[in-house]
Structure formats: structure tokens, C-alpha cells
Amino acid sequence: MIYFDNAATTMRKPQCVVQAVQRALESFGGVGRGVHGASIDAGMAVFQARQRISDLFGGPGPKRVAFAANATEALNVAICGLMRPGDHAVTTAASHNSVLRPLFRLEDAGQAIVSVVPIGADGSLDYGAFADALRRDTRLVVVTHASNLTGDVY
Q1: Is-contact 148 8, C-beta < 8 A?
Q2: Measured CA angle at 117 (ends 102, 111), to 5 deg
């Protein structure tokens, strides 16, 4: 089996991940919850993770890296945090519900205008229609690279 829906569940975690989680469970305290060694060690581990992620993506620094419990939560925070009343967003019909639901919720509340570009019967994206959906006031474009349902790549 080839499994590509790692945002939902990552199967067969690498041994290094298992070891890191085990180490954290056995030795870390709550981040920012005390001045004892276990709490300080946890805080340093989180800071180092933020620093490495910032470096990986060429970001401005660890203070600009935020963690979320999962991809759905992260998308909700990003979408709802970036959109302002009256803003325009573009997505596709192939987008995951974690994208569509917050966009539609904002639209239903009159806080956003959402353009959803359709997907063809053959699973293809009409790039011309996508380009036509973009406007000067488009604040957010949220698209999937590969469908978690069909495997189609856009």
C-alpha cells in the first residue's frame, strides 16, 4: 500500500520519531510551567524546533513559528486569522473540508467573498478559470496540491 494522507494519520512512524516522543513523554515537563529542569528542557526543545523550522523555510525567526494540534486546526487558524471583513478568497472544489468549511462559514457570516473554482469530470483543474477567479482584492488563495480523495495532482 502507498499511503499519502499523512495530514490525517502518519502510519509507520520512523524509529527516530518514536524515540523522540518517548524521550519527551519520559523527561519533559510543561513548557513555560515551571523553573525546574524538566520544564526548562521542554521549553528549550520547543524553541529549538521553532528555530529549525524557521531556518528550513527561510523565516524571520522562531517567534514567527506556531504549532497546531493538526492540519485542520492550523488551516482554521490561518484562514480565520488572515481574512478580514469583505476580503476575497479563491479555492477549488477539490479543497479539503478543513479549507472549505472555514471559508464558507466566513462567507455565510458576510465576512468574506469566496470563489470556488470547479474541478472537471476528469479531475482536472481549469487553470484559465482559476486565473479568472483572481481579483485585485484577493487576499487569500488556498489550493491543494494533491487531492486526499482521488490522488489527482493540480
Answers
A1: yes
A2: 35
Q: Which pLDDT tens digit goes with each residue over 35-50?
A: 899 999 999 999 999 9
- Sequence-distant (6+) residues with CB within 8 A of 24 are 42, 45
**Domain for residue 107, yes or no?**
yes
Whole-model pTM above 0.85? no
The reply to whether 96 and 121 lie within a common domain is: yes
Sign of the Cα pseudo-torsion (121, 75, 89, 102, in order): positive
Residue with cell 495530514: 7
Domain that holds residue 135: 71-141
Number of domains in the chain: 2
Query: pLDDT tens digits for 98-125?
Result: 999 999 999 999 999 999 999 999 989 9
Q: Which three cell numbers stand for residue 115?
A: 470563489
